[in-house]
Amino acid sequence: MIPWEFLESVEVPGEGREICLYRRGEEFSIRVAGRELMNSRVHGSEEALADLACARVADRPRPRLLIGGLGMGFTLAAALRRLGPEGRVVVAELVPAVVTWNRGPLGGLAGHPLEDGRASVHAGDVAEVLRAERQAYDGILLDVDNGPEGLVRKGNDWLYARPGLETAFAALRPGGVLAVWSAAPSPVFVQRLRRAGFAVEEHRARAREARGGRRHMIWLATREA
Ligand SMILES: C[S@@+](CC[C@H](N)C(=O)[O-])C[C@H]1O[C@@H](n2cnc3c(N)ncnc32)[C@H](O)[C@@H]1O
């Protein structure tokens, strides 16, 4: 078997933790504190996150999406496939090097979605974007971490706690949807979404598209019109 080759390591802004990029042949891995955050061979549920959200909002006039976490670009690419020419996607990415990797060695994995004119990058915390806007998005797609139990940074807890959820609610247009990816179920988080005013649906999505294996959680939380 080909051994993993270490490519680069950078600090997660404000955290002191390292985010690292590895390669093994055609396969890439992004790891934080020694744990895998994203592997290029496993992206079924990251695409399902966009597919499920877009099924709700893609046919709205000039749909606007916010994606938190670029990762390897699979969610972004799936959203762009679902949106028409009038759609726009802002992708917020906390770690500048992740954007650089997507413009370089990772770009081809999801078909270079950053080169699509409908996509733009906010280099920074998705929380900043949420706090800055009111009734601005038809869909907000969050995949910044392992789920409500954070791995990348402590600061991400805010996004999954009541203040962050209420801020996301306010940033959505009426009828808009907050879609949240998680590695594992969390009944407490579902309750929190409901208390923030959302109508919630739970979905289980295959990690590896049609090939079985683990299932991840996707919550679709609607700001009812
Ligand atoms: C699991 S990966 C996302 C995978 C992505 N859905 C895909 O399809 O490849 C999580 C990404 O979120 C980024 N991130 C973590 N916290 C963030 C935050 N608060 N704001 C924006 N990006 C964040 C990480 O640097 C990482 O690139």
3D structure, described in words:
The protein has 225 residues and is α/β, with parallel strands linked by helices. It is 27% helix and 33% strand. It is built from seven helices and eleven strands. The strands form two sheets. A seven-stranded mixed beta sheet has the order 7-6-5-8-9-11-10. A four-stranded antiparallel beta sheet has the order 1-2-3-4, with no helix packed on it. α1 (44-57) packs parallel to α2 (74-82). The chain is globular and about 50 Å long. The model has no long low-confidence stretch (mean pLDDT 94). The structure holds S-adenosylmethionine (SAM). S-adenosylmethionine is lined by residues 37-38, 43, 46, 68-75, 92-95, 98, 125-127, 143-145, 152-153, 156.
At a glance:
The protein is an alpha/beta fold and 225 residues long. It has helices at residues 44-57, 74-82, 96-103, 126-132, 157-160, 162-171, 187-195, and strands spanning 5-11, 18-24, 27-32, 35-39, 64-68, 88-93, 119-123, 137-142, 172-182, 199-206, 215-222.
| N- and C-termini, Cα separation | 53 Å
Task: Write the element-wise H/E pattern from the N-terminal end onward.
Answer: EEEEHEHEHEHEHHEHEE
Uncertain segments of ≥5 residues (pLDDT<50)? none
Choose one word for the global shape.
Answer: globular
Based on helices, strands and strand pairing, what is the structural class?
A: alpha/beta
Number of strands: 11
Largest sheet: 7 strands, mixed
Bound molecules: S-adenosylmethionine
How much strand content do the residues show? Answer: 25-35%
Instruction: State the share of residues found in helices, binned by percent.
Output: 25-40%
- Contiguous helical run count: 7
Radius of gyration (Å): 16 Å
What value does the average pLDDT take? 94
Q: In which order are the strands of the major sheet placed?
A: 7-6-5-8-9-11-10
